[in-house]
Design brief:
The protein is of the alpha+beta class and 172 residues long. It folds into 2 domains: 11-89, P-loop containing nucleotide triphosphate hydrolases (Rossmann fold), CATH 3.40.50; 105-166, no CATH class. The chain has 6 helices and 4 strands; from the N terminus they run ββαββααααα. It has helices at 61-68, 91-95, 105-108, 115-125, 131-144, 161-166, and strands spanning 11-24, 33-46, 76-81, 84-85. The chain is globular and about 60 Å long. Residues 47-148 form the AAA+ ATPase domain.
């Protein structure tokens, strides 16, 4: 796929017989072991729907998520977004269509970025507004979740656990 925009399709996300295997260990005397992290997963998510991925520890959730975000190539199968395979998709164009929401705010927030940088990332990716307009929008978003303006200049580690969870959930 070229770096052009991904066209819209009624089916937003489709995983077709997606699998990922890893080779573990091995040396001159021993063959590497094969680990099937994800095995033949297929699903369809229509436009406007939301999908949650749950499962026990070690069942392949993170590997599946990395494949559908285009961060890890599948060993077999395809990930289609808006009817187009994401193989060689432009990461910026892909990020306009699919984004994860992580459960754990401690590990999902970049500790080296200020909250304004993190919250403003989607505005920059989608080229929404000028930098000045983006700053105003960031303040509005922080206000929506009950955080003071000064939170924009804080790092995630300077916020309480409740604040870290709250800033990314509008209306909560």
């Amino acid at each position: 796929m070229s770096s052009a925009e991904i066209p819209l399709d009624p089916l937003a996300l489709e995983l077709c017989a997606l699998s990922k295997t890893f080779k573990l260990g091995g040396d001159m005397l021993h063959k590497p072991r094969t680990l099937k992290a994800v095995n033949n997963v297929s699903l369809r998510v229509p436009r406007g729907q939301v999908m949650g991925l749950v499962g026990e520890s070690g069942c392949g959730k993170s590997t599946l998520a990395k494949m559908l975000l285009g961060l890890t190539p599948p060993s077999a199968g395809d990930v289609l977004i808006n009817g187009k395979a994401i193989v060689n998709a432009n990461q910026k164009a892909l990020a306009r269509h699919i984004q994860p929401i992580f459960q754990d705010p401690y590990s999902s927030l970049n500790p080296r970025q200020r909250i304004a940088q993190i919250v403003g990332l989607p505005l920059r990716i989608h080229a929404i507004g000028t930098p000045k307009e983006q700053a105003v929008k960031i303040e509005e978003m922080l206000d929506m979740v009950g955080l003071p303006k000064r939170a924009a200049q804080q790092y995630p580690g300077q916020m309480s656990g409740g604040q870290r969870q709250r800033w990314r959930l509008p209306g909560h």
